[in-house]
Write a structure and sequence with these properties.
This is DoxX family protein. The chain is mostly helical and 127 residues long. It is built from five helices and no strands. The protein has helices spanning 3-26, 30-38, 44-61, 66-88, 98-116. The chain is elongated, with a radius of gyration of 15 Å. It starts with a helix and ends in an 11-residue tail after the last helix.
Amino acid sequence: MPKLSISFILSLIAAIIFLQTLYFKFTAHPDSVFIFTQLGMEPYGRIGIGVAELITAVLLIVPLTRPFGAVIGLGVISGALFFHLTKLGINVNDDGGKLFGLALATFVCCLGVVFLERKKLPILNKL
């Protein structure tokens, strides 16, 4: 399978996960409000992260901007992983670690896209 096909699949998975979480953030779903309250970021952090995730998903879907979306996605999802490992825990609100698993999957997908399309990124194009 060509690198661009793998990159497309990875970026699509990451974009779908980012887009799926927007419903919870933008509708102030109780689980999302709970998480951001625990972090001391409710409501502005919830909405701000939602906007960042929406922009990231769009960038991941557009082929020309895919590697840039992946870099931003790594930043956004690294924050989520950090808070899971420091403040929230892996099992949040009795979800059995589902949110943590999705964050990990998103991180791996974005990292894969960055690696596969590194020549399109100005700072990594020599690697």
